[in-house]
Amino acid sequence: MITRLKALFRRNLPAKIIAFIVAIILWLFVMNEQNPQIEGTFTVPVDMVNALEGYKITQNVKNVKIKVRGARSLFVSAEASDFKAYIDLTGYNSGDYETKIQAVLPQGFELVDIQPASTAVNLDKIIQREVHIDLIVTGTASPGLTVDKISQSMNTVLIEGPESRVNEIDRAVGYVGLAGNHEDFSLQVPLTAITSDGKALDDITILPRTVRVSVQLARGLARKIVSVHPVVGGVPPEGFVLVQVQADPAKIEAAGDATVLAKLTAIDTEPLSLTDLKQSDKRTVQLVLPDGVTVSNREVVVTFELKPKEAVKEKGSS
């Protein structure tokens, strides 16, 4: 029986092989006609994997277009959610990077292209730092009353955020409104993170967010307009000369005992160093008040003007 089957199989073997090959070709042709290879594009979000904890991570590409090739039947049920795009942040720490975007495709699909193919990524470590709290008094009390003393529950506060942003912060500011008050009062004052040039940064967390402030008012205090005296120390950066220092406001109203005010002609600012100044700079600083003297706002802005030594010499010789 086996011998007869072998003989039957070997009979006209070349013709059988040719027929088999033709059948395969015809099958492939029919399948290609009925279910051809086509291309399609899907828009998908770019995810991040293996990212370090404790960092703020930003990327300039949020979505990519993935172009794929596959049988037409595969596209019938395919959805954008079936395709994945990601960037691998293994080994990345603080800094800027250009990172390749990779894709994960459902079975049967072939990747043709990804646009864009990469994205810029920034990793900024989340840190905390302690800064000083400055209180700014706004408005006026009832007629005949002035601020005698302001007390606060704490003098410093923690700020938290991306390192590059936290390093910009100079202080936390709270605004205390007098609003016609006629007696001592207390309130919770919200704090705002402020840079050295007076800009508020909203993406900084302040811990805690408010400070408890008590305001004591006094009647019968004398008042006097005095000058603001910027206290400057250090030397300008190499190659520069300090040509002007100006406080804003240049004069301020002080309140206190009449005998104390009689001797007072100016109020000093906190010491300011010229060493780390730029060619043109502004600093917000506190006034150093003598005992028994109060002002409505202890904060002033000091402007420094620096010029290259060569420019000053040329002007002097002309």
Automatic annotation (TrEMBL):
Pfam families, A to Z: YbbR (PF07949)
Record-annotated membrane-spanning stretches: 12-30
InterPro entries hit by this protein: c-di-AMP_regulator, YbbR
Keyword Repressor: no
Keywords attached to this entry: Membrane, Transmembrane, Transmembrane helix
Annotated protein name in UniProt: CdaR family protein
